[in-house]
Amino acid sequence: PGLVVLFSSGETSASGQRVYDWLFQRLQQPIRMAVLETPAGFQPNSALVAERVAEFIAHHLQNYDPQVTVVPARKRGTPFSPDDPEIVAPLLRSNVIFAGAGSPTYAVRQLRDSLAWHTLVARHRLGAAIVLASAGVIAASLQALPVYEIYKVGDDLHWCPGLDLFGAYGLSLCFVSHWDNKEGGAELDTSRGFIGKARFVQLWGMLPAQTTVVGLDEHTALVVDLAGQACHVIGLGGVCLCRAGQEQRFEHGQTFPVRQLGALQMPGPQAGIPREVWESVRAAQAEAAHVSGPSPEVLALVQDREGARACQDWAKADVLRDRIAALGWEVRDTPRGVKVLPIN
Predict the structure, then answer these.
(1) How much is the pLDDT for 291?
(2) Burial 278-301 (b: 16+ CB within 10 A, else e)
(3) Neighbouring residues of 253: CB distance < 8 A, sequence distance ≥ 6
(4) For the whole model, what pTM was predicted?
């Protein structure tokens, strides 16, 4: 599976740019990013919300020459449905999929068992990175916090079933973005995702004992590397893990094992994904690799060359570079790492 980046906020800020830079350095070029409009699909300006993210990536990460596409999967039963294959099609070839601001509960209603969600999960299982922010983070929970319903409407404290992105990996996780929010000032506690500490304690008590609540400070991201079984905190604040009545905090720059979130279990690649979706995603990935991606043979030679360079065996490194070129690929050493580009 690919990396999962969870932004509390700041996904279009200087701190967010550093997170994308960290991520893009670890992905195979070219960067093909899809911005899923769904969480804000109820807003009349949802297209603008998504476009701002796309423009931020295209402008501030231009060194990576990212190809960014907005996916207007706004609402079921409309011409912009997350179940429409034409609307969802850009997800098939994307190696980064983003879903951000909006309403967590709206995102869950529109994405649950949808073609868009199954495609996102399938792409992630096959290596694509998933980037979620704010409402998108909460929606990916086992139980999603209905922020607007409680904070704005005054509903009784409750949780709503979420999309449970990590459930297939044996992890029972509930995410709360804006963990350290202070917009209420001295008069109103708006921390814990605008819910406040006192009400959050009650909500925490409603969850099963094995559930871990992951609180994300603003302008902070948690990167979950399931394959590497490690979590990285990047940003201006920290991450708080709440389980079994205890809280544990990790600050920017710290790394901790995935087992701190629970007992990790790797699922079968197709688990929970409809067969037709899985087959279409695999076919699209194979086609994209054939057209624009280096073969496993080329990647193995690149890795061997890096080993030779690390040992300062420059003659061997040059021979390997020539072998890679003979297969139609150029190895380019840059300050950001090695790039493998097709020879035109």
Answers:
(1) 56
(2) bebbbebbeeeeeeebbeeebeeb
(3) 233, 234
(4) 0.83
Short-list 175, 171, 208, CA closest to 192 = 175
**CB contact at 8 A, 144 and 39:** no
How confident is the model over 245-266, as a mean pLDDT?
Answer: 94
Chain mean position to CA 230: 15
237 neighbors 218 (Cβ within 8 angstroms): yes
Buried b or exposed e, range 9-36, using 16+ CB within 10 angstroms = bbbbbebbbebbeebbeebebebbbbbb
3-state secondary structure of 321: helix
Contact 323, 300 (CB under 8 A): no
- Residue 168 pLDDT greater than 90, yes or no: yes
**Maximum C-alpha span of the chain:** 70
The tokens for 20 are 């994308």
C-alpha distances (whole Å) from 307 to each of 231, 272, 317, 335 are: 26, 39, 8, 17
Token output for 337: 């790492």
Q: Are strands 220-225 and 4-7 parallel, antiparallel or unpaired?
A: antiparallel
Give phi and psi for 296, each to the nearest 5. -55, -35
CB 7 within 8 A of CB 138: no
Q: Enumerate residues 6+ apart whose C-beta is below 8 A from 213.
A: 173, 174, 175, 176, 204, 207, 241, 242, 243
Whole-angstrom distance, CA of residue 86 vs CA of residue 92: 11
| Torsion, CA 274, CA 38, CA 141, CA 237, rounded to 10 | 140
Q: What is the mean pLDDT of residues 25-41?
A: 93
Q: 127, exposed or middle or buried, with CB in 10 Å at 0-12, 13-18, 19+? A: middle
- The answer to whether the beta carbons of residues 39 and 45 sit under 8 Å apart is no
Residues 6+ away with beta carbon under 8 Å from 103: 39, 40, 42, 135, 147, 148
What's the rounded Cα separation, in Å, for the pair 201 and 264? Answer: 26
Structure token pair of residue 46: 């949802």
**Calpha distance 245→192 (Å, rounded):** 16
